[in-house]
Specification:
Blueprint lengths: L30 E2 L3 H5 L1 H12 L2 E6 L3 E6 L2 H8 L5 E2 L6 H4 L10 H4 L10 H15 L4 H19 L4 E3 L1 H5 L2 H9 L6 H13 L5 H21 L5 H7 L6 H32 L1 H9 L4 H11 L5 E7 L3 E3 L2 E3 L4 E5 H5 L31 H18 L4 E2 L8 E3 L4 E3 L3 E3 L6
Parallel strand pairs: 1-2, 3-9
Antiparallel strand pairs: 2-3, 4-6, 5-13, 6-9, 7-8, 10-13, 11-12
Family: Belongs to the cytochrome P450 family.
Organism: Streptomyces sirii
InterPro entries: Cyt_P450_B, Cyt_P450_CS, Cyt_P450_sf
């Protein structure tokens, strides 16, 4: 089945009224992924698209710009491992080149080309990524875990005596940035404001551009401080690296790592805790020693990966993917969560996945997440320390009352209310 995009989808088209079965779909019958009703059930919409189009489906993003949403596991891997055909360089994007992605566009902060390893391929990618991976590799998991344990204890101490907490707002949402400020050599108090700005950018809100400017300004000041007074931290290691990165390159890679590490690790911690609290088999296996916590995290990354959709890839030439005709300049969105649930590789989604790391939670290929060892160390240590401190942790509401907030890239637990026996440190 081949779906041809209209030459230029118009933002002037009106969506059907709320409650209409076609609400969230453009007159061309393409789903608007930026529509609030579509995002409210994006997981369900993805399965509708899989049934209708197969592993590659035509959709619309902000401004009714056309894109391809890739749902199949095999098709996602083909894109991730073939940068010569599916490039990370957004300058290939036809709509951006032709002026349909203005600076104030909600996707502009994460699609406008920048001197980043995630926006280049080939030799330049190897140079920039090498600097990032080498610098991150200077930090051992053991040292990261010490930071995580310290901050976990501090956060738990705030609510341990009350016997109740929201493990999203009071724990998962705060911990990763506290740890990252240590790796960045920043004061602890910078964490909350940076976390809010990062989330705003990734959600593509109307204030995303202003939030992006705040992040850029804060990190530029950090680079200037570290050039004057280097230390044992990630910015200093980037500055010292033999790749000879300029200030702009260093600043933008700091922003990249900060963004990726915070948002994905918040989700990984929250989703792991939700599974511990709602799946009796999981909790029984975990406490009984039949499933290690790292194994449990891998199951979470299959079922509820930290990032739902990865933007983006751009076709460098006309090609075919999943029976669809892809044109040069087309944008492709990688449906990581949908790929993990592809019936072609997981016919039974209820079956546990032990020792299998072929999920796409951290992407794959040359652009695979370079900081995944940090995310794993933070989530693993955080959950383990929390369960040790509060061994009788239990959900305070029925599982059916848990709420989710979904954007194009992420699906968040809004809150995870729990109860436990009050204690003091």
């Amino acid at each position: 089945m081949t779906a041809n995009f209209p030459e230029h989808a118009s933002a002037a088209h009106l969506a059907p009224p709320p409650g209409c079965p076609a609400h969230g779909r453009a007159p061309e019958s393409l789903y608007r992924l930026h529509d609030a009703d579509v995002q409210a059930d994006l997981v369900g919409v993805q399965e509708v698209l899989r049934a209708e189009y197969g592993p590659v489906a035509p959709v619309l993003v902000h401004g009714d710009l056309p894109a391809w949403l890739v749902l199949g596991h095999c098709e996602n891997l083909e894109i991730l491992r073939t940068p010569s055909v599916f490039s990370r360089d957004s300058r290939h994007w036809r709509d951006m080149a032709e002026g349909r992605v203005p600076p104030h566009h909600p996707l502009a902060p994460i699609t406008t080309w920048q001197p980043l390893c995630v926006f280049v391929d080939g030799e330049e990618h190897r140079r920039l990524r090498g600097a990032v991976t080498d610098s991150l590799g200077r930090f051992e998991s053991r040292g990261i875990r010490r930071h995580v344990t310290r901050f976990t204890d501090q956060l738990v101490d705030r609510f341990a005596a009350t016997g109740q907490a929201d493990l999203v707002g009071q724990f998962a949402a705060e911990l990763p940035l506290l740890v990252m400020t240590q790796l960045f050599g920043m004061p602890d108090e910078h964490g909350p404001s940076l976390a809010a700005a990062v989330q705003d950018v990734l959600n593509g809100t109307q204030t995303a551009v202003a939030s992006n400017e705040f992040i850029t300004r804060t990190l530029q000041q950090l680079v200037e401080r570290k050039r004057a007074n280097p230390g044992h931290d990630f910015p200093s290691k980037l500055i010292e690296h033999s790749a000879g990165l300029g200030d702009d390159e260093i600043r933008e890679h700091l922003r990249l790592i900060l963004t990726a590490a915070n948002e994905t690790t918040v989700n990984l911690i929250a989703n792991a805790l939700r599974m511990v609290l709602t799946d009796p088999r999981f909790r029984a296996h975990l406490t009984g020693g039949h499933m290690t916590l790292p194994d449990a995290l891998e199951q979470v990354m299959w079922d509820e990966p930290p990032m739902m959709t990865l933007l983006g890839r751009w076709a460098t030439s006309d090609t075919r993917l999943g029976e669809q005709a892809i044109k040069a300049g087309d944008m492709l969105l990688l449906g990581l969560r949908a790929a993990n649930a592809d019936p072609a590789i997981r016919p039974d989604l209820t079956a546990p996945v032990h020792g299998n790391r072929s999920h796409l939670a951290f992407s794959s290929g040359p652009h695979e997440c370079p900081g995944q060892h940090i995310g794993r160390a933070i989530a693993d240590t955080a959950v383990d320390t929390l369960l040790t401190r509060l061994p009788d942790l239990r959900l305070a509401v029925p599982e059916t009352e848990l709420e989710w907030s979904t954007s194009l890239m992420y699906r968040h637990l809004v809150a995870l209310p729990v109860q436990f026996t009050p204690s003091r440190r």
